[in-house]
Structures are given as C-alpha cells and as structure tokens.
Amino acid sequence: MSSEQVFLEDVSHLALNLGRVLFQSNADTEEVQDSVRRCAVAFGCEARVLVTYESLLCTVSCDGEFRTKTGNRVPAMGVNMATVAAAKSLLEEIECGLSDFSMIRARLEAIEKQPPVYRSWLVVAGLSLTAASLSRLFGGDWPTFFVAFGAGMIGTWLRLEMGRRGWNLFLIAFLTAAASGVVAGLAVRLSWSHEPALCFLAVGMILVPGVPLVNCVQDMIKNHMTLGISRLGFALLLTLSIAVGLFVAAGITGVQIPVPEISHLPPLAEDALFSALAAWGYLFLFNVPWRLAWVGVLCGVASHTSRAFCLHQGIDIVTGSLIGALAAGFLACAFAQWFRAPVSAFAFPGVVAMIPGSFAFRAVIGFIEIMKSGANAPSSLVSETLALSVTSLLMVLAIAIGVAAPIILQKPQELPQRD
Predict the structure, then answer these.
(1) Helix, strand or coil for residue 33?
(2) What is the C-alpha separation between 94 and 38, in angstroms, rounded?
(3) Helix/strand/coil for 168
(4) Phi, psi of 267 (to 5 degrees)
C-alpha cells in the first residue's frame, strides 16, 4: 500500500470515529456531518458522510484517490455534552495543526471512555430535585413537592442501575415509570399528597426523551428526513413506554390519573426559581461540564419564565413555547461562541423542561381509556385526548424551531486554513 493510500486510510478512519463519537452522544446530524468534513479538510482532503440511525458511512478523497468506510454500529444514543464538548475541542486542535494520527486516536479513545463528570448520587439527587421542582411549576403544593422528590429519587436510582447493566431502553423507561408511579401512588393513598396527577406526571417528566424529540424536528427542518423520522419513532416509543408504566402504576395503587388539562400559573418569581432548580437535574443527567453548567441554568430560566410571562399575558402555550425556545436558543448561541463550546450543551438543558411530557402522557392515557370504553367513550374524553395530542405535537415543533432558528441565522464561519 502506497503512502498516499495509508494517509487516506488514516484520515478516513479518524474522521469516521470523530463523527461516531459525536453521533452516539446525541449531537444533531448537521453537527456530525460538519465535524467529519472539517476533520478531513484539516488534512487537505474532502469528505462526504451519510448518517443513518445505526451507523455512519464516510468517503474521503484526495488527489484522485478515495476511501469509503462504514463505522461500527451505534447500539444506542445517550446525551453526553461533556463528550461532545471534548470532541469539538479536539477538532479545533486538529484544525490548528495537530496532525499526529496516533496521538489523535489516543485522545479520541480517551474522550470516548472518560468517566461521567458527576457521580451517580449527584445525578439521582439532581433529577429528584427536578421532579419536585416540576411539580411546583405545575401548581403542586409542598407535600406534593416532597412526594415527587422521593419518587424521583427511587426511579432515577433504578434507571441508572438498569442502564449500567445494559438493559433495553424501552424496558428501562417502563420499569422506571412504573416504580416511580407506585411510590407516588402509595404516597397519595397514605394521604401524603392530595394531587395524584402532579405526583405521577412530575416523575414521568424527568424520563421524557426531550433531546431526541427536539433533534428529530431539527433533522427534518434541515432535510435529514430519514434520520428525523427514526429519532421521532424512538422518542414516541419511549414516551409510550413511560405512559404505560405510569398507567400500570396507577392500576396497581388504585390511583386515577385524570386526562383533563391541569392549569395553574405560578408567579413569575416562583417560576424562575423552580425553573433554575429543574435545569440543574438535566445538566447532571446530560453530563454538562461544571464550567458551563450555570449557562444551562440561565437558559432554562430564560426559556421557561419567558413562556410563563406569555401565558400570564394571555398568549397561547404554543406561541409561548416558541418565544421561550428562541430566548434559550439565542442565549445558547451567544455563550457557545464565548466559551467555544457546542450550542447543544446549553440549548438542550435550557428547553427540555418545556417539553410537553405531561400533555403526551395524558394523551396516551386518554387513548387507553378510549380503547377500554370503545364506542361508549365519552365525547369529552375523545376531544380532550385529541386536543392534548395536537398540542403536544405543536409544542415540540415550536421548541425545535426556536432552538434551531438562532443557529440557522448565524453567519457561517470560515474554516481555518491549514498552513
């Protein structure tokens, strides 16, 4: 094999591995493709990359020679913003002249295997606080806050333990929702809380696949239809697993989850406080580095409190969600340029609390009730279920557009030229 062929082999292997690390950490498709191309350009080559839901296909060419490689299958995608940030930082070093292939491969392998930024107990405590804070944002009282905290703690611990053992993601979602729901239901039966819907929905919300939902719409907007539909299917199946788990828990404990919408608007100051607390749990779960975590909290407060302000002014929740997502998106873009970090490290933790998990869960429960009632289903139940479904869809679309618009509106930056 000639030296040119060896060079192309090294470049294609390196670019493909970089793309795979980003993809399995839940970077969006456009970011993965752009990073692979930039990596190849840094070595004086041209790259074309095809991203599918299971693997990447990359062709690297230079001086009439080309290599086409298929990456290893990606078994599952988890949100890991520390890995995304580290991979993007390595890419910048490559563009600035780092060309030792063995060193780059070692760095990339170390990035892929690096331990989580936060210990398990901190993730459990953070997500428990998120569940409790969400119950307050939905209008729950303090007893409901503590019930949601306890149920969220048990569910999150179980989720992390099953994840370490490599269990199926849909089974994990179902069992976690069921276990959390049983704890919440028993608390309601013991009269520790008189708001069963909020106890159940708060613990279900911390399981909602917010990042895949937002990414799927962004992929479709950018014409990556196949991957967008795949992500959408994954997110819907995961949401269904969570909803069925909560439904089973309600049946076991004898507590009913009402389908009609829960409407309560806390004061803006209270909304800002609990939005900030809710964002912390997602920052721990998404493995956002410490030095960047406060920005995610700021984006979370900006997005959710902006939406709350719109609702106080009589603006509908879909438009309010769009405005809140735009606020988080523009803030995320500004801080991403400042810290030279990926926009997603700030944007996703900032908007995920607005994902309409409570709407989606109640819609699924409504469909189950309609299925049980058959032709005798009340018209009010049918109309409420359809309204929840449409609202969920429009809210996810509004949030995704709000996050994507500031990125699209940014002026494209010139790739650094290699000396």
Answers:
(1) helix
(2) 9
(3) coil
(4) -60, 155
pLDDT of amino acid 261: 61
What span, in angstroms and rounded, lies between the C-alpha atoms of 78 and 212?
Answer: 10
Among residues 85, 1, 106, 97, the alpha carbon closest in space to that of 35 is found at: 85
| Total Cβ atoms within 10 A of residue 29 | 23
Tell me the C-alpha distance between 405 and 93, whole Å. 28
Of the candidates 97, 203, 88, 223, the residue with the CA atom closest to the CA atom of residue 157: 203
Of 197, 170, 172, 175, nearest to 185 by C-alpha is 197
Measure the CA angle with vertex 248, ends 243 and 252; round to 5°: 150
Percentage of the chain exceeding pLDDT 90:
45
- In this prediction, residues 231-244 reach a mean pLDDT of 88
pLDDT of residue 260: 62
pLDDT digits (tens, 9 = 90+) for 14-59: 999 999 999 988 887 888 999 999 999 999 999 999 888 888 999 9
Regarding pTM above 0.70, the answer is yes
Structure tokens at 402: 């709000």
CA distance 187 to 151: 9
Distance CA 307, CA 2 (A): 60
- Identify the pLDDT of residue 76: 67
Q: Give the largest Cα separation in the chain, rounded.
A: 76
To the nearest whole percent, how much of the chain has pLDDT over 70?
95
- CB–CB of 325/401 below 8 Å? yes
